[in-house]
Amino acid sequence: MTRTSPAFLKIIGCPLMTGVLAFVLLAHAGTAVAGTSASASVAGVPPEEAMRLGEKMYRDGILPSGKPLQAIVKGDVPVAGSQLTCSNCHQRSGFGSSEGTIRTPPIDGTRLYLPLSKFKGIPLTKQATELQANDLFRPAYTDETLARAMRTGVDPAGRQMNTAMPVYDLNDRDMAIMVFYLRNLSSGLEPGVTDTSLRFATIITDEVSQEDRQSMLGPLQRYIGNRRLSRTSEFSVRTGAYLQEGTSRGMRALSLVVWELKGPSGTWQGQMEEYYKKAPVFAILSGITYGDWAPVHRFCEDHKVPSVFPITDYPVISEKDWYTFYLSKGLYQEGETSAKYLNSRDDLSKDIRVVQVFRKNRAGTALSKAFQGAWTGLGRRPADDVALGEETLTADFWKKLADKYRHTVVLLWLDANDFPDLENLVKTKAMPEMIFASSSLLGQRLYLLPEKARKSVYLTYPYTLPQDARKYRESIETSLRNLNLPITNLDIEFKMRSLFSTLTGALAAMRNYVYRDYFLELIEKTPDLTVVQVPYPRMSFGTGQRYASKGCYVVQLSEGPKPELVKRSEWIIY
Amino acid sequence: MSFRWTVPIMSFLLIGSCLTAEATAESKPSYTRTVENYQIPDVTLINQDGARIKLRDYLVYDGPVLVDFVFTTCTTICPVLSSNFMNFQKTIIAESGKARLVSISVDPDFDTPKEMKAYLKRYQAKPGWDFLSGSRTDIDRVLRAFNVFTRDKMDHPPVILLKAPTDSRWVRIYGLIGTNKLLVEYEKVRQ
Fold first, then answer.
1. Residue in A49, A54, A53, A50 with CA at minimum distance from that of residue A15
2. Which of A70, A72, A99, A337 best probes binding to B when mutated, by most B CB atoms within 10 angstroms?
3. Cα Rg of chain B (Å, integer)
4. Mean pLDDT per 10-residue run, chain A (574 residues)?
5. Domains in chain A: ranges and CATH
6. Which residues, numbered 58 to 117 in chain A, qualify as contacts with chain B under a Cβ-Cβ cut-off of 8 Å?
7. What does the alpha-carbon distance between residue A486 and residue A55 come to, in Å, rounded to a whole number?
């Protein structure tokens, strides 16, 4: 979360429009917009439909008629609501945001209708507001003053709000829906939350080894067991007007349950539904599978359950899905990187031929698909695919391949068991210009590449180089030892540190406002994490960003008996 | 200092600073205008079409150049800055004016050409408005050179820079500005 000196705080108030229509609004607001349990209709539509229509206006700037909402910002800048939606600044949760010198206040259903006073419990009069002289403090909104604010930019104290807050052109019916939506926004307790507890789950699938399971679960259990949403942690963040709220009821104990998923992935959905029905959880933290994370991803989208940093090579690649944060795009990122790197090499012919050799399994498919998508997206002619079943790859196979694809780029998306000794590829005169492989698939085998092949072989490497990360890995080993936790898979344990670095700030800032949308937003506002805390050169966040580490190196092996990885590229993003 | 005393003391300081801010709010415009000299680093960035752009050369133009600093997933000031660029561009095109608009990303890890292109489309950008990103190192150099670098991208300041074709100095607008006032500033550097 960004913090700003109070002297620079500016308010962007809530929207609403010029209107002569206060009396019409009263009719709507006073009856239909009555509260969260309203069973009566809102402006002629059932409450659930009103929430859906309100959400569409709030998040997408689309009116119930399907037309874009119209607005004016900065006094004279006309914008379509779709360019400057309510949620752009106030966020999905309605809890607001801050950036640079701009503070966007919360407009959730609870706080809008409470006075915002510098001194807790003292209601604000207009006079007191003027005396306190701070835009952030104001009397409680009513449905009428809320509508006036959206239409004219005047707050309940009668002051003009900062003009970065647009004023909106909403008719009475749409306004009634909008007010109803805001009244109900982020109110009540969410699943997995009680007044005194907050429950999380993690997920482990049954093919995961005991060692890897322990590397994920041990540190996570220790982390959750040692933490509560406590007054002490809240104190340190109580530096702003809004942050002073919600501190008195904040003692929630955190708990973690393990959802063990067994059998084929097609049955996971049912198993998760059972767990969830029995005891709902607020969010899913980490989790591990060697397979595809997609079933869990889908479950989280369906139930709006946040899921943070599962350990998987196979995340779902989506630009729109909302609820899962991934560490990276996994193998997909490596496939894309090889395409971007080749495209950046001006010394290669623009018509260079590329062939990818892969097994028709999950890894081969992910890497080859990612390469092909990125490569053709860059305007290049598609690579040839040599897709293999389960046949053994003989020396004859490699010789024929080398003969067929002379002076090409060869992408070997194969794991350590399949990887050829390369002699047949590099000793011929028609040797490939370049050979690419994935370091994640090769694992430690990559250090066994024969010396004479090293000059031709390029590897995608999506982490900080080992020599640069050494001291940070050592510090993790030390801290695990101090906690009496076994060191079973340091790569996973380093990834868990990424989760803790992210969660700590989000949980502390969440305080008593335990809402999933807000939790996701707090993670989105995490300042960049660097090699000190995470196994990547950088993890970065932002609204709608769901893959925290976004780059990958291309490396080669140095010469000599103890080779190191040598960068052949910067951290490749595009 | 004990926690017990920290709260009242901080509250006192907070009140003091708020009163100061309010007292000066009416007498000052919502933005500050200064004239600055910047040493533009010799970097090659990438634009929304994937083209490589040498920044120094690109900022030399036979009309006014306007630069702002945004990122595509920004939730607060960037939509306001970009709406302003959009309306500014529409206005000057309608009046047969001329200007080069340059948005520079403060989030190079996410803002790929694809993202930048979609962002410009969202703000109905016409030719003459480009969005530039680059390597983390190069972008940091640019941000430092223009005195807009912040450790956390979410802290980045609302700044628009304007330069006349015949002048190497930059007018720095700090704070959010409406289109009409921006047009006034534009007219000043145009002359």
1. A54
2. A99
3. 19
4. 33 33 33 46 92 95 93 77 81 81 82 76 48 67 95 90 85 96 92 92 98 96 81 43 45 92 97 98 98 97 98 96 98 97 91 94 96 95 95 86 86 88 66 88 89 90 95 92 92 95 90 91 92 91 95 95 94 90
5. 6-184 (no CATH), 192-327+471-543 (3.40.50.2300), 332-461+554-567 (3.40.50.2300)
6. 73-79, 82-84, 88-89, 91, 97-102, 104
7. 47
Taking CB atoms and an 8 Å limit, are A6 and B21 in contact across chains? yes
Q: Which of B20, B46, B79 sits opposite A84 (nearest CB)?
A: B79
Return the closest-CA partner of residue B10 out of A375, A5, A131, A70: A5
**Residue whose entry in the numeric block shows the structure tokens 């139930």:** A303
**A426 close to A456: Cβ distance less than 8 angstroms:** yes
DSSP letter, residue B54:
E
- Kindly tell me the burial class for residue A526, based on how many C-beta atoms sit within 10 Å of its own C-beta (0-12, 13-18, 19 or more): buried
- pLDDT tens for B118-149 read 999 999 999 999 999 999 999 999 999 999 99
For residues A520 and A322, is the Cβ–Cβ distance under 8 A? yes
How far is the C-alpha of A544 from the C-alpha of A542, rounded, in Å? 6
Residue A388's φ and ψ, nearest 5 degrees, are: -110, 145
Buried/exposed code over A122-138 (b: 16+ C-beta within 10 A; e: otherwise): eebeeebbeebebbbbb
Beta bridge partners of A256: A200
- Asked if B110's CB is within 8 angstroms of A550's CB, the reply is yes
Report the C-alpha gap between A478 and A469 in whole angstroms: 14
Tokens of B77: 């000031």
* Kind plus residue range of the DSSP H or E element containing B44: strand B44-47
* Residue A342 near residue A354, CB atoms below 8 Å: yes
Residue at token pair 């950088």: A538
Rg, Å, chain A Cα set: 28
The number of angstroms, rounded, from the C-alpha of A517 to the middle of its chain's C-alpha atoms is: 12
The gap from C-alpha A562 to its chain's centroid, in whole angstroms, comes to 38
* Residue A506: its H or E element: helix A490-510
**CA nearest to A447, candidates A455, A439, B15, A293:** A439
Q: Give the up-direction half-sphere exposure of residue A230: CA atoms within 13 A in the CB hemisphere.
A: 9
A240: amino acid identity, one letter? G
Alpha-carbon distance A467 to A457, whole Å? 20
H or E stretch including A184?
helix A172-184
* Structure-block tokens of residue A331: 């193998």
**Distance from A417 to chain B by nearest Cα, in Å?**
34
Pairing label, strands A354-359, A384-388? parallel
Q: What's the CA gap between A92 and A323, in Å, rounded?
A: 12
If you write DSSP's letter for every residue of B145-164 in order, what string do you get? HTT---SSGGG---EEEEE-
Give the closest of A101, A134, A543 to B73, CB-based.
A543
- Please give the CATH topology (third level) of the domain spanning B31-190: Glutaredoxin (3.40.30)
pTM equals 0.84
